[in-house]
UniProtKB/TrEMBL annotation, chain A:
One of its GO terms (molecular function) is ATP binding. It comes from Hoeflea marina. It is an enzyme of class 7 (translocase). It is found in: Cell inner membrane. It is a peripheral membrane protein. This is Glutathione import ATP-binding protein GsiA. GO terms for biological process: peptide transport; transmembrane transport. Part of the ABC transporter complex GsiABCD involved in glutathione import. Responsible for energy coupling to the transport system. The keyword Transit peptide does not apply. InterPro entries: AAA+_ATPase (IPR003593), ABC_transp_ATP-bind (IPR050319), ABC_transporter-like_ATP-bd (IPR003439), ABC_transporter-like_CS (IPR017871), Oligopep_ABC_C (IPR013563), P-loop_NTPase (IPR027417).
UniProtKB/TrEMBL annotation, chain B:
This is Peptide/nickel transport system permease protein. Belongs to the binding-protein-dependent transport system permease family. The lineage of its organism: Bacteria, Pseudomonadati, Pseudomonadota, Alphaproteobacteria, Hyphomicrobiales. The chain crosses the membrane at residues 12-30, 102-123, 135-160, 180-198, 237-263, 283-306. It is a multi-pass membrane protein. Its main location: membrane. The keyword Coiled coil does not apply. One of its GO terms (biological process) is transmembrane transport. The keyword Transport applies. One of its GO terms (cellular component) is plasma membrane. It is found in: Cell membrane. It comes from Hoeflea marina. Residues 96-306 form the ABC transmembrane type-1 domain. Pfam families: BPD_transp_1, BPD_transp_1_N. InterPro entries: BPD_transp_1_N, MetI-like, MetI-like_sf.
Length: 616, 317
């Protein structure tokens, strides 16, 4: 392993130089400028991270390097110099010859970035035939080698497979193989790991790093994730609203950010391990965007009511049956939630963490009986929810509310936000129409929105504001428990921090309990009192947040924690994790009987499932 | 695949039974009836008419008539034409060739033209070509088929004398070229509406595809615009067209009815109209069932083709 040499200043002879690039998009009759005079450079073999929140123009800048923006819709000015050639002077054919050969690109969505009707092998081989003039059989042989290089086993069989039969991580490997086919000197990676699970993200990052060292390839890495930036980049360029805010060596940016924006961005990033000495959740410090002045954040009071649990879940099991054939024979079952048990006390936050398919969302839905569980009991404040008839369930649902991941699709676009918040009040007969109007104003104020905005429609609000509206709607019925299913995952870093602060404030004020479902370990560390780690439908470790994060016992918990990128360049942790273990599927044969599990106590309020070797 | 086919055949059989019931009921409930033409003849007495009804079985209750017709049909006996006492199946089969010839030609024409116009419209969106194609499709969809047929005959047969005005071939000739010559007019007329429909669907399908991420991937790896279109976009854009083709069969059949009449084409469409005006119920029912089978087979074929063409469709289902 060769240590990557940091490249502190603009190198003397950069591989890629972007000089005063401006990009405008056609908007009605005029042009809307989204990138304003961006300049940056990438040295040979160097990794430069281009970071920014959504709408910062980072992806547009990257796309414009290879001229991938439609000429009719976008207008670009400014120079891009690659290996001493001014790319803006190239004609269409010269540009095409460069794409995928000396500059390659990979994208965010591995699920949609591969052609669904072409085999994986054919798509990789295509690059080889275009740029290196190989014939069919040469390209075939070379492609098989590329499969090996990106650590895809069983290359011969994979060659003829179509993308839909592969997992997201696998598809991103195919994309990387395609990009590497012609040994590029620059790889542009546009959010390549954003859509992937954290353990898969770690594998892909390690793979990119490893291949980069082998090939001496430079990487321009576009991301919004400060943790990823800290893990992989030599230099960092921060963008905001189409402009470069700050650029410099990654270590310097993180330790001593010069600009207010960078400082506020970094302060909003939860850093795994930063809560080691604190027992209670903590708000994010609030920085002023422009000046970077910190506003002291008050300590969170202890909100947990210890006498008796608010929610007791026992033996909760939800399975989905897969049917096949003419007569609908049962061909298998998805063991989405398997014998799950936990308790939540009033004013407490229990986080359910795990990767895709682990059953954390189904658990949340089963508790509210949005998905009907097959077995188990859910006792909320003394009432068994699973035993209620539909009428009883309706009246009890007001004690538990849900906030979803996507604030765009969880609000009715044809209904003003005031009406959306009003509805639960009227449905549950908590107020008559005139009183309710006043309550809506109050609720909007509670979540930090202008009460006068109640007549506006969801599309007039930003993602973060919409999530606040969803929270206000959930709060309207004064629930005792809120199930927050990935509620902050789709939000930008700084907005995420604000919404989390709001949720913590509301807990302090109203004593509401949260079941916080998330895949983001760093956020979970920040907000939880207790944590339950889920894997393949079962809870494998549960305990106080401090115990689970500080002293993880179950191998899966350890693996999950070690895969999280930490937003601190001095603590790089992504080792050469070159395994290509896939996330297992909870689909089992119809005859499968889940084994009897045994839990081991690791301390007070901390236990984990006995390790079974059949669990990879 | 086997269970999928089994299920589809079961559905198709059920549909056919329902179609036949509705068809039979409507036909026999309509005023008039097969005997009304004899009633015009002054020499026929009521007793004669009753005897005829007795002979043809028309005096029995409708459900019994239906049941008898249905079980005979299952055994391959589709009845005898009231007009000339020929077996119905024989009459239909003798007209089938002409209709299939016309429909196939029109379909191939419509596919080629529609795909080409639609693709070009999508690639050069909002260009002059695209605008003209859009207007053209609207016009083609609004023109009644019979009128367009008459215009073609008026201009190319009567006026320019380039095309024959009707029939499948010149009596006494019947060479391949002569047949092709006769086919041009009616197949163009029949293809017109389908071309318009196809080009619109193809355009929107292509627009969908060329904005997909994998097209961006192809561009980023240096594939030429031509290959992006033909290797990457076309196959994806054509997938939904397979379903459209299946749905288009009824439109084609009803189009054939009009076109065949205008061009005196000796196919099933004309046979159908003639049989209706003669109140030749066995033949009308026969054609009805035959077209229903054609439509069902067409959509079944489309589904099978789709699952073959799209690797994402699981073939076990």
């Amino acid at each position: 392993m060769k240590p990557s040499v940091p490249n502190p200043s603009a190198s003397s002879d950069p591989l890629l130089l972007i000089d005063d690039r401006t990009v405008s998009f056609a908007a009605g009759k005029g042009w809307n400028t989204v990138v304003h005079g961006v300049s940056l450079d990438v040295g040979p073999g160097e990794t430069v991270a281009l970071v920014g929140e959504s709408g910062s123009g980072k992806s547009v800048t990257a796309m414009s390097i290879l001229g991938l923006l439609s000429a009719r819709q976008a207008r670009t000015t400014g120079r891009v110099v690659f290996k001493d050639r001014d790319l803006s002077l190239l004609n269409a054919d010269e540009m095409r010859a460069l794409r995928g050969s000396d500059i390659a690109m990979i994208f965010q969505e591995p699920m949609t970035s591969l052609n669904p009707v072409m085999t994986c092998g054919a798509q990789i081989a295509e690059s080889l035939t275009i740029h290196r003039g190989l014939n069919r059989s040469e390209a075939h042989t070379e492609t098989l080698q590329l499969f090996d290089r990106v650590r895809i086993s069983d290359a011969a069989r994979r060659f003829d497979e179509y993308p839909h039969s592969l997992s997201g991580g696998m598809r991103q490997r195919i994309m990387i193989a395609m990009a590497l086919a012609c040994k590029p000197s620059l790889l542009i990676a546009d959010e390549p790991t954003t859509a992937l699970d954290v353990t898969i993200q770690a594998q892909i990052l390690a793979l990119i790093k490893e291949l980069q060292d082998e090939e001496g390839m430079a990487v321009l890495f576009i991301t919004h994730d400060m943790g990823v930036v800290a893990e992989i980049s030599d230099r960092t360029v921060v963008m905001n609203k189409g402009r470069v805010v700050e650029a410099g060596p990654t270590a310097a940016i993180f330790s001593d950010p010069a600009q207010g924006y960078t400082r506020s961005l970094l302060s909003a990033v939860p850093r795994l391990g930063s809560m080691k000495d604190r027992a209670l959740p903590e708000r994010f410090p609030v920085f002023d965007r422009e000046t970077g002045v910190v506003q002291a954040s008050a300590d969170m009071p202890d909100t947990v009511v210890r006498e008796k649990p608010l929610l007791e879940v026992e033996g909760l099991t939800t399975r989905f049956t897969l049917r096949q054939g003419f007569l609908g024979r049962v061909s298998g079952r998805v063991h989405a939630v398997e014998n799950v048990a936990f308790t939540v006390r009033a004013g407490e936050t229990l986080s359910l963490v795990g990767e895709s398919g682990c059953g954390k969302s189904t658990t949340g839905r089963s508790i509210l009986r949005l998905t009907e569980p097959d077995a188990g009991s859910v006792v909320l404040d003394g009432t068994d929810i699973t035993a209620l008839d539909s009428k009883g369930l309706r009246s009890h649902r007001r004690h538990m509310q849900m906030i979803f991941q996507d604030p765009y699709s969880s609000l009715n676009p044809r209904r003003s936000v005031g009406d959306s918040i009003l509805e639960p009040l009227l449905v549950n007969r908590l107020a008559d129409r005139s009183d309710a109007q006043g309550m809506v104003r109050e609720l909007l104020q509670q979540v930090g929105l202008d009460p006068e905005s109640r007549d506006r429609y969801p599309h007039e609000f930003s993602g973060g504001q919409r999530q606040r509206i969803c929270i206000a709607r959930a709060l309207a019925v004064e629930p005792k428990l809120i199930v927050a299913d990935e509620s902050v995952s789709a939000l930008d870093v700084s907005v995420k921090a604000q919404v989390i602060n709001l949720m913590l404030d509301l807990q302090a004020r109203m004593g509401v309990a949260y079941l916080f479902i998330s895949h983001d370990m760093a956020v979970v560390e920040r907000v939880s009192h207790r944590v339950a780690v889920m894997y393949l439908g079962e809870i494998v470790e549960i305990g106080s947040r401090q115990a689970v994060f500080g002293n993880p016992q179950h191998p899966y918990t350890k693996r999950l924690l070690s895969a999280v990128p930490v937003a601190d360049p001095s603590r790089r942790r992504i080792k050469r994790i070159l395994d290509s273990r896939e996330i297992q599927s909870p689909i089992r044969d119809p005859g499968y009987r889940p084994p009897q599990r045994r839990f081991i106590d690791a301390g007070p309020d901390h236990r984990y499932m006995e390790w079974n070797d059949s669990w990879a | 695949m086997a269970t999928f086919l089994l299920r589809r055949f079961a559905q198709a059989a059920l549909l056919l039974v329902i179609v036949s019931m509705i068809g039979f009921a409507i036909l026999h409930l309509a005023p008039g009836g097969p005997l009304s033409q004899y009633a015009v003849d002054g020499n026929m007495t009521q007793a004669d008419l009753d005897r005829l009804a007795e002979q043809l079985g028309l005096n029995r209750p409708l459900p019994i008539q239906y049941a008898e017709w249905f079980f005979r049909m299952l055994q391959g006996d589709w009845g005898l034409s009231y007009r000339d006492q020929q077996p119905v199946l024989h009459i239909i089969l003798s007209h089938l060739g002409a209709t299939l010839e016309l429909m196939l030609t029109a379909t191939v024409l419509a596919m080629i033209l529609g795909v080409w116009v639609g693709t070009l419209g999508a690639v050069r969106r909002y260009s002059l070509f695209d605008s003209l194609a859009t207007i053209g499709a609207m016009v083609a969809l609004s023109i009644p088929t019979f009128w367009f047929g008459l215009v073609i005959i008026y201009v190319f047969s009567v006026g320019l004398d380039w095309l024959p005005s009707g029939n499948r071939y010149t009596i006494g000739d019947g060479s391949f070229l002569n047949r092709i010559h006769h086919l041009i007019g009616p197949s163009l007329v029949l293809a017109l509406v389908s071309t318009a429909v196809w080009s619109r669907y193809m355009r929107s399908s292509m627009l969908d595809v060329i904005n997909q991420d994998y097209i961006r991937t192809a561009r980023a790896k240096g594939v030429s615009e031509r290959n992006i279109l033909f290797r990457h976009a076309m196959r994806n854009a054509l997938l939904p067209m397979i379903t459209i083709a299946g749905v288009q069969i009824p439109t084609l059949l009803s189009g054939a009815l009009v076109t065949e009449t205008v061009f005196t084409w000796p196919g099933m469409g004309r046979l159908f109209l003639d049989s209706i005006s003669y109140r030749d119920y066995p033949v009308v029912m026969g054609i009805l069932m035959f077209s229903a089978v054609l439509v069902l087979l067409g959509s079944l074929l489309a589904d099978i083709l789709y699952s073959v063409a799209d690797p994402r469709i699981s073939r076990q289902g």
